[in-house]
Amino acid sequence: MDSADSRILLVEDHEDTREFLAVLLAHSKYKVETASTICEGLKLANAHAFDLFIFDSMLPDGSGVELCRRVRKFNQRTPIIFYSGLAYETDITKALAAGAQAYLVKPVDVTDLIQSVENLIGKAADSQSLEKQAV
To answer: What single string gives the DSSP state of each residue in 38-107?
Structure first.
């Protein structure tokens, strides 16, 4: 899948980080929508199709893990990356158990972030293509 066709929902409460990531991803030709709360993120995730979600762990109205669990109730396919300052093994384990595919600890090298995004979007696209062929 060409990155120009890929849509990403970024849920991050820190304005500077949210803007930086949105610009970085847009520069890599992704279409990015942003939210700063669980409530905003859920509204967007319900209203639009995305190829990838990127969630922070700590949001003003709850945890990213809570957001991940709630998204997984209606969307089991779209990959989720956590981009978080929480680096304890228990934080990572909770996020992955809630349905995330990757967990990156801030700060992360931007090339590692873009590579993770590309890998997960590519895997999801390949999986959907195989499912269509099987039908």
So the answer is: HHHHHHHHHHS--SEEEE-SEETTEEHHHHHHHHHHH-SSS-EEEEES---HHHHHHHHHHT-SEEEESS
